[in-house]
């Protein structure tokens, strides 16, 4: 085999290898993009379900209030919990479902970033609202279903306060913050999408 033939064969093999690598790279990027779309859609759907659950919790509070409307020690706090949940329902109204699988990379990045900003902005409010709802619902719930008048006994009040305090401490210690988990994974998804974007831009410049 002459040197020129060997060089030609080598160049052909090299081109084939480069083409295969590009195909594998594109397939990997496509899989990564699809996975990011699926994960984002999952988190968004979860958040939307949470929004409508806030409305359900509001209705639960109103139902409990209707059971004992004139026991103001229980009904007024429960009403505040209902209003807080109603507020939560409306503050998450910007969350909308869309066909994210059909979006291009730039649109997906924008939507993920918008969702991250929204969840981080409202995370503290959501936690506070959930805590307030439990604090205002448990006393009236115990009274309606178990005939336990929580506010009529100092010992009951102390047990309730200690239990709530313990729950708050445990949730602070344990890694149960779903918002931090979402933010971390969505930030990583955004970084991966940025890498895909750089690859595609670089590919176009060749």
TrEMBL record:
- Keyword Transmembrane in annotation: yes
Q: Where are the transmembrane segments?
A: 43-66, 72-90, 129-148, 154-174
Identify the keywords attached in UniProt to this record, alphabetized. Coiled coil, Membrane, Transmembrane, Transmembrane helix
Q: Which residues form a coiled coil?
A: 7-34
Q: What is this protein called?
A: Uncharacterized protein
């Amino acid at each position: 085999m002459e040197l020129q033939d060997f060089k030609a064969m080598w160049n052909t093999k090299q081109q084939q290898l480069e083409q295969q690598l590009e195909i594998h790279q594109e397939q990997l990027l496509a899989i990564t993009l699809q996975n990011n779309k699926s994960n984002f859609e999952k988190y968004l759907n979860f958040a939307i379900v949470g929004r409508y659950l806030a409305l359900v919790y509001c209705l639960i509070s109103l139902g409990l209030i209707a059971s004992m409307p004139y026991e103001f020690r229980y009904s007024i706090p429960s009403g505040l919990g209902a209003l807080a949940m109603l507020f939560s329902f409306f503050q998450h109204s910007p969350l909308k479902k869309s066909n994210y699988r059909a979006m291009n990379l730039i649109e997906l990045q924008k939507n993920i970033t918008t969702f991250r900003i929204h969840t981080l902005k409202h995370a503290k409010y959501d936690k506070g609202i959930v805590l307030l709802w439990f604090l205002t619902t448990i006393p009236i719930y115990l009274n309606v279903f178990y005939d336990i008048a929580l506010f009529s006994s100092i010992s009951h009040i102390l047990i309730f306060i200690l239990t709530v305090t313990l729950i708050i401490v445990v949730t602070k210690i344990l890694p149960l913050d779903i918002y931090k988990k979402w933010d971390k994974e969505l930030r990583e998804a955004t970084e991966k999408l940025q890498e895909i974007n750089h690859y595609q831009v670089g590919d176009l410049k060749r």
